[in-house]
Request: fold
Amino acid sequence: VGSEMCIRDRSNCARWGRPNCKEDKAMKTQLLKVNEDSIALGAKLIREGELVGFPTETVYGLGANALDAEAVVKIFEAKGRPQDNPLITHVSCVEEIPPLVRAIPAAAKKLMEAFWPGPMTLILPKADCIPNAVSAGLDTVGIRLPSNADARALIRAAGRPIAAPSANRSGRPSPTTALHVLEDMDGRIPLILDGGACQVGVESSVIDATGDVPVILRPGGITPEMVERVLGHVRVDEHVMSPLREGDVARSPGMKYKHYAPKAKAIIFSGAPEHVVAAICKRYDEQTAKGERVAILGLDEHHYGGRTFLSLGSEKRPQEAAARLFAALRELDERGDTVALCEAVDTAGIGLAVMNRMGRAAAFDIEQV
Ligand code: TXA
Ligand code: MG
Reply:
């Protein structure tokens, strides 16, 4: 796929000679409930340069020792991830950060105090100990201090910062349960720690606080409104709700790639609820008559008269849509749906993160009705 060439596509497994390559015999993947013993095993594997799937409050991560370039390369192999997309480095406390960065700007400090531990990643100038494999050659590194106690226990036990992208195969929806990780990583990694379903359900807010005005590169559980309350101002990158066009430069490499895409063609309907429901019902019936297998993703308050409906929760609790969206996208694939008709949700608060992910799943095919 053009510039999206990844390590796996170069079929250089012989060079790496690692057992988790597709061409070699698949390794056995253990799925263990999180407890003291499984965390100790996970920490040992991380120290030995292996990969571990682990829970965070946002989505499951695919972790490796962030200071071990060879271990980090295995992440890109297991995911089939483009090499120019950098990884987030996770720490268990703020004291672990100074060796990893060259500076912490004042705005970043304020955000750290307000929102860590929690679903926020800060882009900071990187120190030399962060391998290029982690930063994808950039001069910056994303740092995150998760609130999930199991994630922090794993990092602490490993005694190393953990580089971790979401634990999905590249292009698939991020995993919000350990079983999602198993679906994507079975035979590719030695261990998945099962800590139950993720609470937030969308990945962390990625915030570049290196300049004068903080910029949200990826919306998440820490919303623009929350950042503005702390810093007095905030910018949301224009590509959060629009696709990158030819010639556009991505401030965050992840913006470039097709993401979260179910096999079904997804279309978003935006407008007054009664218009959205009517338009979706009409399209549903037309597509079904053409032989398509159609499903609706929407809010519980809206009624579709027995048509196939996957719930994004209640409009009264916007965080439910965030927590359910990725599982719903995976369910479309499992059911074999070919068309997904999705209700747009309000972009206030965490709704912006939901619409960013839904937008990308639909290649920003949004119909105003
Ligand atoms: O919630 C999360 O952030 C999860 C959990 C596991 O912590 N991780 C995650 O990682 O979502 P990943 O690799 O799937 O997404 C990281 C995003 C990508 O869009 C990447 O381009 C961006 O963060 N990113 C990482 N380092 C960056 C940097 N130095 N500058 C700009 N963007 C960066
Ligand atoms: Mg990801």
